[in-house]
Amino acid sequence: MKIRTSPSEASLILGLILPFWKSEQKLKAWSMLLIVLICNILVVYAYVELNKLNGHMYNALENKDLQAFLKQIYKFTLMVSAVIIIMNINSYFNR
């Protein structure tokens, strides 16, 4: 299903949006948008790295390598902590 907008609807939408982004609070709005985008990108990156980390951790388990497994558990703990912090920052700025 395609949503079609007429030129008058598009100008109405732009007429509602543009004054906000050009107002006195534009710096705050742009900076909050940037923070939210950066947080989302960091969370996606962290999930990709966690996925790789799980592979290394299960390989260490399969090889019965305790030192490598403990190293991966340590990395996993750090990564999960970072994800929690980033998601809290993101949640704060999404309010």
The largest sheet, given as strand count, sense and whether it forms a barrel, is: none
User: What structural class do you assign from the helix and strand content?
Assistant: mainly alpha
- How many domains, in number, for the residues? 1
Q: Share of helix among residues?
A: over 70%
pLDDT < 50 stretches: none
Structural commentary:
The chain is an all-alpha fold and 95 residues long. The protein has one domain (24-93). It is 84% helix and 0% strand. It has helices at residues 7-21, 26-62, 66-93. It starts with 6 loop residues before the first helix and ends with a helix.
In a few lines, what is going on in this structure?
The protein is mainly alpha-helical and 95 residues long.
Itemize the secondary structure elements and their pairings:
Layout: H1 7-21, H2 26-62, H3 66-93
Helix pairs in contact: 2-3
Task: Please supply descriptive tags for the structure shown above.
mainly alpha; 95 residues; 84% helix; 3 helices; 0% strand
